[in-house]
Amino acid sequence: MAYESVRGMRDILPQDIGYWTLLEDKVREVARRFNYREIRVPLVEHTELFSRGIGEATDVVNKEMYTFPDKKGRSLTLRPEATASVVRAYVEHGLFTTEPFQKLFYIGPMFRYEKPQKGRSRQFHQYGVEAIGSLDPALDVEVINLAWELMDSLGLKGLSLRLNSIGCAADRKQYRQILRDYFAERIESMCEDCQRRYEENPLRILDCKNDLCQPHIKDAPGSAEHLCKSCADHFASVRQHLDRLGLSYTIDSRLVRGLDYYTRTVFELVSVDLGAKDELLGGGRYDGLVEMLGGPPTPGVGFAGGMERLILVLKERMQPHDTQRLDLFLATLGEEGRSLALDLARDLRRQGLSVDLDYRGRALRKQMTQANQLGARYLLVLGDDETASKKGKLKKMDSGVETEVILTVEEIERVIE
Ligand code: HAM
Description:
The protein is an alpha+beta fold. It has two domains: 14-168 and 228-317, Bira Bifunctional Protein, Domain 2 (BirA Bifunctional Protein, domain 2, 2-Layer Sandwich); 325-416, Anticodon-binding domain (Rossmann fold). 41% of the residues lie in helices and 21% in strands. It is built from 17 helices and 16 strands. It has helices spanning 14-33, 47-54, 59-63, 83-92, 95-98, 137-153, 169-183, 192-200, 214-218, 229-244, 289-292, 307-317, 320-323, 334-350, 364-373, 384-389, 409-416; strands spanning 37-38, 44-46, 66-69, 75-78, 102-111, 123-132, 159-165, 250-251, 263-271, 279-285, 300-306, 328-332, 355-357, 378-382, 391-396, 402-406. The strands form three sheets. Strands 1-5-6-11-10-9-7-8 form an eight-stranded mixed sheet, with helices on both faces. Helix 6 (137-153) packs parallel to helix 10 (229-244). The longest helix is centred in the first third of the chain and has 20 residues, at 14-33. It is elongated and about 90 Å long. It binds histidyl-adenosine monophosphate (HAM). Histidyl-adenosine monophosphate is lined by residues 81, 83, 112, 114, 119-121, 124, 126, 128, 130, 258-259, 279-284, 286, 302-306, 308-309.
């Protein structure tokens, strides 16, 4: 019997790994530029952290969590996201006592029991940032700016930022009532989930993807039109900062995002290629979450993006070779050539170049094909002539141009770099 991976949980194979390491490197690099430090939190938490933090009425908590009892009967959950865990860590370790303002980032797997499809899986990966400890609208914009910089560093275009404010707890309470009034006459003809959401939290109706509900949602009142003075000022300031930095956005006053902890600013970055339904990343403020999870009143803002989705977009623009380049393939002819190749490979690798050679005794032509398949930047053939003369021809694979070199590490390095 052959085993298969669990549905919705995919292997990442070597032919794809270059995209993953490239993305991870870029996240780390951009986070460093913005002074965000990495945090690693466990994959498993007490279920209550998510049910309270994310909200009982959300799809994530209601339908999508992997929850199981441990051997002592305690309910544990595979993390469906990391914001609640990061805030738990912030509170648990009293990070606020030494430095209440923390700028953090993370990369790692998350778990949601969703219907697997393109860009949606049950074990998926997120990169994300959380800036905890300031209400400054410039910080909302820093977080958005970081997201744009990341996309920029990956050469991604055709993206658009949707922005909204859902206000403070009092605003949301009022907005919930406005939505209830609006949906009152329509809810009968909407899906069962929405009927439940209508009772539990009508904001969640706005996340509904069901075609049946779309015509009703389309004309629902927007949240940004019902903000208190302080939240309206905050939102205006966020927009001013975005304008000043030249970061474009469109206001979508029905964008509420699917998690209950959000307050004020919410945003999503969508790729035109992926279609507006599946956002590349999403985030916003969560000014009540730290306190809800037992810490002092502390605001926060952040976002997370799905790596699978971003890689789908990257794949359309980049070959796997572009993500992980082999610098040099040493093709060998005869025993002498092979000994020289083994020595050179050791020395060049020590200098930081990526070097490979044949280990299957293949004919020269086959070795050249292999160099091509590996996407090697340069090829060097080492046979009796090269061993005797201590000279060889470094061939640049994309142009076919050959450069004669003395076979020393320094000479080869000089040509390749
Ligand atoms: P979220 O919108 O639930 O927000 O997820 C963020 C991103 O994770 C989505 O935009 C999407 O790219 C990706 N994603 C979500 N579910 C899946 C899935 N099943 N398969 C593949 N990708 C998926 C959060 O998780 C918040 N914690 C974001 C945040 C951080 N807000 C403030 N700070």
